[in-house]
Amino acid sequence: MIGYVTLGTNDLQRAAVFYDAIAAEMGVPRMMDYDGFIAWGKPAGGAGIGLTKPFDGNAATVGNGVMVALEAKDKDQVHRLHEIALANGGSCEGPPGPRGDSFYAGYFRDPDGNKLNAFVMG
């Protein structure tokens, strides 16, 4: 079971605006907030997301093939999360819609280029 995912950023404050907006839509607060690290989640809740500048001091880069999937409560929330992402500096990687018979998702990248999606099953 995954406890949380940490993504690298080169501009923590810019990235925080993006993730604050996404987290607000999902009803998830910041649970940690330090000079070089911010995390969103709920204690004893589902997996959280953290943002940090890389520990080694090098630039954050995007992992090719890496994606974080955010479980939405319904198709309407998939659309809202996709719109919120684009309105807060994200870019579209595939508009919301059905993917197969029982999967509905919208894909986007955060301002640093990390790939995410919002999805519902069933």
Major beta sheet summary: 4 strands, mixed
Q: Unreliable runs, pLDDT <50, ≥5 residues?
A: none
* CATH topology description: 2,3-Dihydroxybiphenyl 1,2-Dioxygenase, domain 1
Question: How many helical elements?
Answer: 2
Average pLDDT metric: 95
Tell me the name of the CATH class: Alpha Beta
Q: How would you write the strand order of the largest sheet?
A: 1-4-3-2
Q: Which descriptors apply to this entry?
A:
4-stranded mixed sheet; VOC_core; 2,3-Dihydroxybiphenyl 1,2-Dioxygenase, domain 1; VOC family protein; 2 helices; Glyas_Bleomycin-R_OHBP_Dase; alpha/beta; 122 residues
Structure description:
The protein has a single domain, classed as 2,3-Dihydroxybiphenyl 1,2-Dioxygenase, domain 1. The chain is 23% helix and 38% strand. It has helices at 12-26, 75-87, and strands spanning 4-8, 30-34, 37-40, 48-52, 67-71, 91-98, 103-109, 115-121. A 4-stranded mixed β-sheet has the order 1-4-3-2, with helices on one face. Strands 5-8-7-6 form a 4-stranded mixed β-sheet. A hairpin with a 4-residue loop joins strand 6 (91-98) and strand 7 (103-109). Helix 1 (12-26) runs antiparallel to helix 2. The radius of gyration is 14 Å and the shape is globular. 26% of the residues are buried. The model has no long low-confidence stretch (mean pLDDT 95).
